[in-house]
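hey so i finally got around to running the thing on that chain from the lab meeting. sorry it took forever, my laptop kept dying and i had to restart like 3 times. anyway pasting the input first so we r on the same page abt which one it is
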Amino acid sequence: MTNYITKRKEFDLLKKRTFFNKQINKILEKQNHRCFYCKELFCDIFEVGNRYKNNTSVPKDIRDLPSQIFHLDKYTIDHVIPLSKNGTNEISNLRLACLICNCKKHNKII
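ok and heres what got predicted. didnt touch it at all, straight out
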């Protein structure tokens, strides 16, 4: 159990690193922005209109358009071999999954 807690704390710290986020983005692109298990797209769709013109958190090319579709990816990071079963935090052991699939999988090895 102590090994699991150590790995979980390590993973929480790892998620805050820029390098890790770049790796997750690569996985996201490799999976075509889809859940590894059910293949559903990871996005909510918003219509961005004139009210976002001055919002700098919205990309400039979107802000400059009168109306545009804006995607926000929503995913969870799944350990193929769960940490509780001696899995690692290495990128090769990570997949992106929707919340439903990640919860269904729980700590099983599929």
